Sequence to fold (114 residues):
Amino acid sequence: QVQLVESGGGLVQPGGSLRLSCTGSGFTFRRYGMSWYRRAPGKERELVAGITSTSSSTNYVDSVKGRFTISRDNAKNTVYLQMNSLKPEDTAVYYCNAAGMSYWGQGTQVTVSS
Fold:
């Protein structure tokens, strides 16, 4: 069955960095665009970044442009989210998703606080 396993979250001070990872299994990873979403307390789930199957194109929500970078390694069935210059408003549970699929992992908690 399809599985998505996110990791790499944690507690970081404002201005710090984290790299999230999401490993997929149970589907042909290299054929799917992948995205990162986040859900902050009391808010709706938000699309943060996306990447095409071949890494030819990426997109970002305005609030993270210039700070976050999405990438993938199809040989490892893994998509990454490098997060720099983190702000308290980036605090959320982060999830990855394969385009067109309704499967979600357990997410990884990112907390930005001094």
In short: The first strand starts at residue 3 and ends at 7. Residues 101 and 108 are 19 Å apart (CA to CA).
